[in-house]
Amino acid sequence: MEFTIGEGRAGVSVRSVREPHAVAQVAPVAPVAPVAPVEESAGQEVRASSAARVRVQMFGGLRVTAGGCSAGPRQLGGAKPRQILVALLLRREQAVCKASLVGLLWGDSPPAGAMSTLEGYVSLLRKRLDAVSPGLGTAVRTVPGGYLLELTGIEVDVHRFRDLGAGARTRKGAEAVRHYAEALEVVGGTLLPDEHLDWVDDARVGLGTELLHVLDEAAEAALAAGDLDRAHRWARRAIGWDPFDEKAWRVVLECCGRRGLHAEGLRAYDECRRIFAAELGCTPGPGVRETFERLLDSVRKVDDDPLAALVDAVVRLHLVISSPDGTSLVPPGRGAGGPGGFDEEDDWRLLERFLSTARRRRVGRSPLSA
């Protein structure tokens, strides 16, 4: 199963991977590739911790970088040593017993002598890490009954994402927004796209849930701080993950209302309503509907602008005629009988007056005057 971190819905596919039980002969250590210089856009801050001498990337693919050297999946000793490293990385500075590692690597069908084979793979992994940075292999520590990855001096992007998100929750205003922005910038792609194992799939799903939670928090924090661009962008990104995320829909509608983008807000509610009706057979929840009511109030306040009133009337009528059951989308109590609400007939009359006026002027205009 593949779970992509990024915009859009997650796709799911199943791929079975068969590996021989016999330990293959270890190929010579591949040379470690130098790291190309990274070009930074103007004004972009370098946010990685300056204390880390080694950086491990898991988003977008596994890569270990130190100084001028970088090792990708092929340089880390093959599938099994790489999977051992992944298992230790996902369990942040926690010991993993050998029996658990055997289960992760071979499932219910371990080869004969699996413990010895595991120890051989760990030894190979240490050598490959030493090739990236001398002494790095000692980070894979042997503990009673298993192994632990010591992360002193090592920065892991997944852990950094979680730390920045946690730090943002303890801050307020623009400072919180800045920390959320840093956390979301760390997420650069799919978590470990080259690994197709059930336990890695589970990690992808779990991290995807965390990402959605951070996006919701970030959008709400940006909205509270008045950073409407980020609030709208992060909310839309969350909706790309989960179209039924009502927190994100509320932020989108609120941003449209504060910006005066009433027609865009009405279209966004129409989009939300259609998704809920098609997939769940229901309307959005009360929180979304209440935010939509406030948007309608803000539309009413600008109705002294003839052009704005006409555009909004057209959008509202579009919502009515596009509704599956032909009913108005204005919340109960906000229509013709509601105080300060909208009368669908008023919208029709406004549109008819506009069309009638346009026709009269067109008829009274000669081809030469046109």
From TrEMBL:
Entry-linked Gene3D superfamilies: Tetratricopeptide repeat domain, Winged helix-like DNA-binding domain superfamily/Winged helix DNA-binding domain
MF GO annotations: DNA binding
Residue ranges the UniProt entry marks as DNA-binding: 44-151
Family designation: Belongs to the AfsR/DnrI/RedD regulatory family.
Residues annotated as domain OmpR/PhoB-type: 44-151
Designated name of the protein: OmpR/PhoB-type domain-containing protein
Biological process (GO), any one: phosphorelay signal transduction system
UniProtKB keywords: DNA-binding, Transcription, Transcription regulation
